[in-house]
Amino acid sequence: MTRSVTVLTNPAAGSGHAPWASAAAVTRLRERGVTVTEIEGSSVEEALGLARKAVAEGTDALVAAGGDGLVNIAWQALAQTGTPLGIIPGGTGNDHARLFHIPVDDPVKAADIIASGEVAAVDLARAGERWFGTVLSSGFDALVTDRANQMRWPKGPMRYNLAMIVELAQLKPIPYRIVLDDRTIELDATMVSVGNGTSYGGGMLITPHAKLDDGLLDVTVVKSGGRFRLVRLFPTVYKGTHVDLDEVETYRTRKLRLETGTPVTSYADGEFVGRLPIDIEAVPGAGRVIAGAPLN
To answer: DAGKc domain spans which residues (predicted)?
Structure first.
């Protein structure tokens, strides 16, 4: 059983849903006899500093009460320390929570999972110096995120839908060079996604066969094609069946390098990582998580 936790909250996550979820979970944890310390950063840098301080001081677990962006901050403090991650889902996508079998709409049940203290070791991925738990995106989906981040209207998921329409109108092939463990691939592609976990964007199973304990990354390459093909592909991503389409190739590797002939950004766990080229590797057992059920 978990005896003490530090709860890190993002007050802006999920359009303000995170503070409510955090409060409900903290109340439940205290009812279960867990000692709770609450921290909240006003910036990414402050949140990360507070998280690292809590881990250094020996908290039993660091709990991220928010979305995947906050979990990503937590991973920077937790990777390779042995201190486990707990999650109180309060974001928009909550892909980490789904990955670790944590209910996304019931903070009390999420708190019960944390109190039970059932810890599993998981692989993490590292892109440059930044850790991530789910998926790194580059190409079309990263361009959509770029554009959505520049838009002030509309709010919520509709902003991403509108950004996607704009990027579809400007769709161009991207010349990629992908260096895997056993081969180098050069092709024009629409997007390349690298998965430690299976999903991003609130349940889009872009790397559906990724495993958390195999020491490998799953790579999904969507080859260059027209707008109609891309529009046809996106509904299948929610089922993970896009990997069976002719325009999609998949690979598995421990390390890879992504290069492009044109400027392309990348995002991991929905957070900006940097422009390509970028080196990515799987790090076996680098993370520990309090999960709601056996993983994989």
So the answer is: 1-130
- Domain range for 48 is 4-117
- CATH number of 139's domain: 2.60.200.40
**Dihedrals φ, ψ of 242, to 5°?**
-60, -25
Classified as helix, coil or strand, 283 is strand
Under a CB-based contact definition with an 8 Å cutoff, are residues 36 and 5 in contact?
yes
Beta-bridge mates of residue 121: 288
My answer on whether 145 and 268 are in the same domain is: yes
Q: What is the pLDDT of residues 246-265, one digit of tens each?
A: 999 999 999 999 999 888 99
Q: Are residues 266 and 147 in the same domain?
A: yes
pTM (predicted TM-score): 0.93
- Residue 127 located in a structural domain: no
Q: Which region among 24-38, 57-71, 215-229, 244-258 has the lowest average model confidence (pLDDT)?
A: 215-229
Residue 163's pLDDT band, with cuts at 50, 70 and 90, is confident
Tokens 């190739």, located at residue: 249
Give domain status of residue 53, yes or no.
yes
Q: Mean pLDDT, to the nearest integer, of 23-47?
A: 94
Pairing outcome for strands 85-89 and 61-66 = parallel
DSSP string, 70-131: HHHHHHHHHTTT-PPEEEEE-SSS-HHHHHTT--TT-HHHHHHHHHHT-EEEEEEEEETTEE
Cα separations in angstroms, 54 against 5, 11, 43, 268: 9, 19, 17, 24
Number of folded domains that form the chain:
2
b/e for 6-23, b at 16 or more Cβ within 10 A? bbbbbeebbeebbbebbb
Same domain? 147 vs 100: no
On whether both 173 and 257 belong to a single domain, the answer is: yes
**Which two three-digit tokens encode residue 165?**
């329409």
CA distance 117 to 102: 13
